[in-house]
Write a structure and sequence with these properties.
The structure holds 2 protein chains of 2 kinds. By secondary structure, chain A is of the alpha/beta class. Chain A has helices at 42-49, 71-77, 93-103, 109-120, 135-147, 165-180, 192-198, 216-219, 226-234, and strands at 4-13, 16-26, 31-35, 57-62, 65-66, 78-81, 153-157, 184-189, 201-206, 209-214. In chain A, helix 3 (93-103) runs parallel beside helix 5 (135-147). In chain B, helix 14 (270-283) packs across helix 18 and helix 18 (354-383) runs antiparallel to helix 22 (451-480).
């Protein structure tokens, strides 16, 4: 059973085709990276695969669950870090994770929150309202919320974007450990250097269609780094 | 400034058309024109019961209140600057990253909304009167005077609201003092009549000195000038008080959510959502806004009833049952507030659905607000020495408030404020709210003639409303299941 299986996935916004017949398979235990220029369709695809958005056509199964028919079941078994870090304004950092734990019916929620507070050094932010937190701290909270219930598959939309190099490194190490323990990651990002270090397989999306897919080595030409390969593939 | 204003108007237009579609939104002023035309055509009959001068007074009081509700930019701007807006952002927040002055954007909001809401309501209503000329033979000059004077009352309401809400941003004690001052002025005019309302509404004063009233051009000019003077002073004062740099106060909060979830655990899956609602309402200051926005129309209703009975000497028996029906229907305001606390985009990442969140809001409405309506009806019954009908009034206020909120939730989901600008939704809402409201109002007037008949008919209406409420509650799931958060 594939972790993610999409077939003929399409999304239309008015007259714009945001996704055009996407075919995609991600195997369990894979670290899969989705790359593409701005507006290529990365976030749309991630939102469809996580049950946040309905496709105009096509089918998608995540952990063998139909994302169109059972979006809530999909969301209950996966973790999601959205593109915009927007935890609820009037809850404290602790309360937000507690809220997520309650909605997800997580046992021993206090101990799990403490673990993530320790991991991200969030103790100073514990009693601050989310609206008063820095972007980086909000991003840490969103990451903690995505992993709080220990899902076997996570979808990350630009997870490193607001993190300083120390936490980028820390999260990168954690994700490698997570993959080592059998987890699956689907990541949409612009950060090619991180992709080079982390991804088992990548796909490049442009104008709503996947234009290249394979391992980092397969995508790179001779004497080419991933950035050069990416620019060549998207014709920039 | 003109460039900024143009962009702000485009932004406001796109925000509204984003909810209901361009065509539906543009139909709204056309409906207002039609409505105004209908009132104008039937005005002859209306004026046989309500003298023209009283109708004008009610018009100015209503337009002033409308202005008050539109102009609270201090609250609104603060909300935009402080809270998370999901994937959206607004021009008001741009001074944070661009070399723009916050004062300029607040003034821009004032001018934007003055233009926007005059275009949306006042101008189409005036157009309806103009279109009615072949049937009503209204003079174009009288319509012009009515528009100008009503505009002055509207802008005065907006300016007062703008000023007072900015005071709230700067100093909450001054805010309370100013609100108390303004309230006592209106209370003096509305209840004890120690002040004529025209003294505090220069638009009304000017109107009463221009055609079709006997003309006193000097007096009217003085009223207009004093009105404009107050308006400019309030707007200038508000703009000067806008802080140049707005820094939201970062406050540490005590953890409340876990305790609340524990208390509400009987509600199982709804406990976290509901607890979050309560925490949000308290920390965002929405409780106070809800209270004032509920109490203001209640006071206005009491004043109108009092005015019709004693001011206009119309022999209508406004008993406790009448108030109960009216109060129940104000619940829509409170449900709207529940949807305006914070963005819900983050919920898209969690295993919760839009119908679940709607139901959580309905439960919080029931737990938080029904007692306010019941309390008000109890107080008004006691004040009017009419407690004999409380046994009938209390079921009415409970059933109608739950009914109207469920209707609102069914029709507008989590975007009440926006969807009520959709003419299709507004039309359905109007039919579903006005029909039972009229029915209960008429039945309340028959109580003194035949209590048994009135009580039986009211029981029937309540049973129909309760059945409809049940069906709509069931329908919420099917209607909103496919909707996305932040859509």
């Amino acid at each position: 059973m594939a972790a993610i299986q999409a077939s003929g996935l399409a999304k239309r916004y008015g007259k714009v085709d945001a996704l055009k017949g996407i075919q995609l398979t991600v195997e369990p235990g894979e670290f899969f990276g989705l790359f593409g220029p701005n507006g290529a369709g990365k976030t749309t695809m991630l939102r469809i695969l996580t049950g946040q958005l309905r496709p105009t056509a096509g089918t998608a199964r995540v952990l063998d669950i139909d994302v169109v028919r059972e979006p809530l079941r999909v969301k209950s078994v996966i973790g999601i870090v959205p593109e915009v870090e927007s935890p609820p304004s009037y809850l404290t950092a602790y309360e937000y994770l507690y809220f997520v734990g309650q909605v997800r019916k997580v046992g021993e929620v206090g101990a799990r929150i403490t673990r993530w507070f320790d991991f991200f050094d969030l103790d100073d932010a514990r009693s601050s309202l989310c609206k008063d937190l820095s972007k980086g701290t909000r991003q840490k909270l969103m990451l903690a919320a995505a992993f709080l219930h220990e899902p076997s598959l996570v979808f990350l939309d630009e997870p490193f974007i607001n993190l300083d190099p120390i936490y980028q490194r820390k999260v990168r190490d954690f994700l490698q450990e997570y993959i080592g323990d059998g987890g699956t990651v689907f990541m949409a990002s612009h950060l090619l250097d991180i992709a080079e270090k982390l991804c088992d397989r990548v796909a490049v999306i442009q104008d709503g269609a996947i234009v290249a897919t394979g391992s980092v080595d397969e995508l790179r030409g001779p004497e080419e780094d991933l950035e050069a390969a990416f620019l060549r593939i998207v014709g920039a | 400034m003109v460039g900024l204003l143009r962009l702000m108007l485009k932004e406001e237009f796109r925000v509204h058309t984003g909810y209901s579609g361009r065509l539906a939104f543009l139909a709204f002023p056309i409906i207002i024109t039609g409505f105004s035309l209908a009132i104008a055509v039937t005005s002859e009959r209306l004026f046989t019961y309500t003298p023209f001068s009283d109708a004008i007074l009610l018009l100015h009081a209503s337009v002033f209140l409308y202005g008050l509700s539109v102009g609270a930019f201090g609250f609104l701007g603060r909300q935009y600057l402080e809270r998370t807006n999901g994937t959206r952002n607004y021009l008001i927040a741009m001074p944070g990253i661009l070399p723009m002055r916050l004062r300029k954007t607040f003034l821009g909001m004032y001018v934007r909304d003055a233009i926007f809401y005059v275009g949306l309501l006042l101008a189409p209503a005036t157009l309806g009167l103009i279109v009615s000329i072949p049937f009503t033979h209204f003079r174009i000059t009288s319509i012009g005077v009515l528009f100008g004077a009503a505009l002055l009352s509207f802008l005065l309401g907006m300016s007062l609201s703008f000023f007072v809400s900015i005071l709230y941003m700067r100093n909450q004690i001054l805010f309370v003092i100013s609100v108390a001052g303004v309230t006592s002025l209106f209370a003096a005019a509305g209840t004890t009549r120690t002040l004529p309302l025209s003294w505090i509404l220069p638009g009304l004063a000017a109107h009463e000195q221009l055609p079709p009233f006997p003309a006193n051009l000097n007096g009217a000019a003085q009223s207009i000038l004093s009105g404009l003077g107050i308006l400019v002073a309030l707007v200038a004062g508000a703009v000067l008080l806008v802080p140049e740099q707005y820094e939201p106060r970062a406050v540490a909060a005590r953890e409340k959510l876990p305790r609340l979830v524990g208390r509400l655990k009987r509600l199982r899956g709804y406990a976290p959502l509901l607890s979050k609602e309560f925490v949000d309402l308290q920390r965002s200051g929405t409780y106070a806004k809800m209270f004032f926005s509920f109490v203001t129309p209640l006071l206005f209703l009491s004043f109108t009833a009092w005015f019709v009975r004693y001011g206009l000497q119309v022999p209508v028996g406004f008993n406790t049952v009448f108030y109960a029906g009216m109060v129940g229907f104000f619940g829509v305001i409170l449900y709207n507030w529940l949807n305006n606390v914070d963005a819900t985009d983050y919920l898209a990442t969690l295993p919760v659905s839009v119908p679940q969140v709607i139901r959580a809001k309905l439960i919080s409405f029931l737990l938080l607000t029904t007692w306010v309506g019941v309390g008000f009806v109890g107080i008004i019954a006691w004040l009017n020495s009419d407690t004999r009908l409380l046994w009938l009034a209390i079921p009415i206020v409970l059933v109608t408030s739950v009914y109207i909120v469920v209707v609102t939730a069914y029709l507008t989901g989590l975007r009440t404020n926006s969807f009520l600008f959709d003419p299709g939704v507004l039309a359905r809402f109007s039919v579903m709210s006005m029909l039972p409201d009229f029915g209960l109002t008429i039945l309340s007037f028959t109580i003194d003639r035949d209590l048994r008949f009135a009580a039986s008919a009211i029981a029937l209406v309540l049973a129909i409303l309760a059945a409809t409420t049940y069906m709509l509650l069931k329908g919420i799931d099917a209607k909103w299941r496919g909707t996305e958060f932040g859509e």
